[in-house]
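Below is how a single chain appears once it has passed through the pipeline. First comes the sequence as given, then the structure the pipeline wrote out for it. We keep one example in the README because the format questions we get most often are answered faster by looking than by reading.
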Amino acid sequence: MSTIRVRCLLQQCTKATLRLQDESEVTINRGMIIFVAFFKRCSMDDGIKLDIDLEFYDKLISNLRELCSQNKDNVVHAGSYGIKQIYSCQTNGPGMHIIEF
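Resulting structure:
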């Protein structure tokens, strides 16, 4: 069994908008954006299949929502995994972190 790895880019923002293929939009004010990638060995050549990615992504979103529900001010919005999305972000400076687990 190969090890599945997750790489996340965390980006702070003062405002961010995500537009999906169907032209729907989600906008947040001050918060955090998390970009997620699932890999067998975390290299571009070793990406796992989209259906398996989606399963992991759905579980991650579910866990984040459960964790954040402990504070009524926390809200988790999620884009659609594996489709083209248009993203724009305003920030007070480079506040990015990469985590891998």
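DSSP finds one helix and six strands in the chain.

See the next section for the split statistics.
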